[in-house]
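Predict structure. Chain length: 251.
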Amino acid sequence: MLSKRIIPCLDVKEGRTVKGVNFVDLKDAGDPVELAWQYAQQGADELVFLDITATHERRKTMIEMVKSVASQLNIPFTIGGGITSIADAEALLNAGADKISINSAAVKNPLLIEELAKAFGVQFVVLAVDTKFVGDKNLVHLNGGRIATALETESWIKQAEQHGAGEILLTSMDHDGTKQGFDCNLLRTICYSINIPVIASGGAGTMEHFTDVFMQTGVDAALAASVFHYGEIAIPDLKEELKKHNIPVRL
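Prediction complete.
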């Protein structure tokens, strides 16, 4: 069985790592370059770096900072935020990214997923999906969660897989930053409806939450931010705990 991955997420705004609750009330969480280095040393399996206001502010991800972060790492590194073209993705790849994450641009132009997959390989393309319950449906949200769409989350993810997405980064906005646990019901539904890896995001607060999401769903990885940024959970301790529950991890 493949090892389950633990992935710290660096949400970056104006050159600083930030973290909020339900995508709002952002607070400073440190320097992204320093944090990237620390996580690599602690045994993180991958890192995700998201310029969370790039799409909203019509900016491109900060290439120079990406280079600085990538220079610290010996683990895979995903970069997202404001990617709308092959040229954007190529610039990030050249700056040191192992994968790119797309969200709003893919919803607006699903063929972008195909173009990226053909240009760089399926494994290079991560589809980020920010989802929130609206009425009785989980709907996809864009621009850092600011704009609701009519797209139902499960059907969009299935469509994205057909277009060539290599991995899904699924964030529950309802759970994000609450530290009440991942949305295991939604994650289980998605995992068993597609054939590509799923990264769980949104809601991690305790080591038990990580154990639950790996034991109760089919996710391949679990992503978190504040519990790592503020030292509430140490990655080596988390992996030892997962190992106790017979969850395969890379120590």
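Summary: The chain has a mean pLDDT of 89.
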